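Teaching assistant here, posting this on the class forum so everyone can see the example we discussed in section. The complex has two components, and the goal was to see what a joint structure prediction looks like when all of them are supplied at once.
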Amino acid sequence: MKNKKTSMTLWLLIGTYLMGLVIARQVAWQPGITMGLHWSEFIKGMVKVFPCAFVLIGLFEVWIKRETVERTMGQASGWGGFVWALLLAGTTVGGMFVTFPVAHALHAKRAKLSVIFTYVGAAAICRLPMTLFEAGYLGGRFTLVRFVVSLPLVVLSSILMGGWLERCHYRISEG
Amino acid sequence: MIVVYCLTALALAISVLKSPDKTKLALAIGWSRFSKVAPTFLQIVCLASVVLTFMPNDMIASHLGTQNRWMALVIAAALGSITILPGFIAFPLAGSLLSKGAAYMVLSAFTTTVMMVGILTIPLEKRYFGLKVTLIRNLVGLGIALAVALVTGWIFGELS
């Protein structure tokens, strides 16, 4: 019941905000117009990604066997699991709005937590299209340094966190 | 992006051929996952649009370009942690800052925190990971970003 109430308030707030944006446009209030532009920019970016992402998540849940995920990314997977996590992260599009649901899907199929956190961390810093973009603006050496330093740290911190949370019987929820 | 659409369409087609029922189930699962995060997603987009409006590019530029590199580094990490800028905004911005003389390590702190640490996305993240793990994950991200920045400063000879 409490959840329903908070989500009602949330929708109300969002509605008020959007109405504010429309009014700002009518009275030509500059900050409001800029806000509206940023808003639609963000929405446009995500609307392009969402259909693919959630269709693929659904297909993954239905078709990929739990044993397959457990073998490649589960408790007994060894270092191979981390390689899969990095490959998956490199090809993920859409940022964290996509990586969190994917993390849950992997968790539900019994991938181990250290691999999942590696995936989430790596998806933030080394998505392939973004990396090419970055190297174009800041130079290959900059990007290379970032990779060489951050990726091992992501894997290491994920192993530490995963080990600790695994002992606490931690669960990733559905969102 | 076109490639992703083609792959999704292909996967969907194969799925329908193999079992229409399972495909229906898959779409239902996808939809339910989406509708669960949609309100939080909208909330974050609203917040982000407000923050971006009051923290425009030239303001970021004036703070990151200061002479005192260590101060700039701290400000860069702080600004980067608040915002989630999409790559197509963050990197061109960083590129123009670079041409205006900003240090590589400052840009590194900024771009890495922009990608790894998101105070604005905590409402979304905590729905999956819980508040405690979310906070730890973001702090770890901040630590990694600072480590990357320092090594970048060292490699590019900016630490003196």
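For the discussion questions: Chain A has a mean pLDDT of 89. Residues 64-175 of chain A form one domain. Think about how each of these relates to the inputs above.
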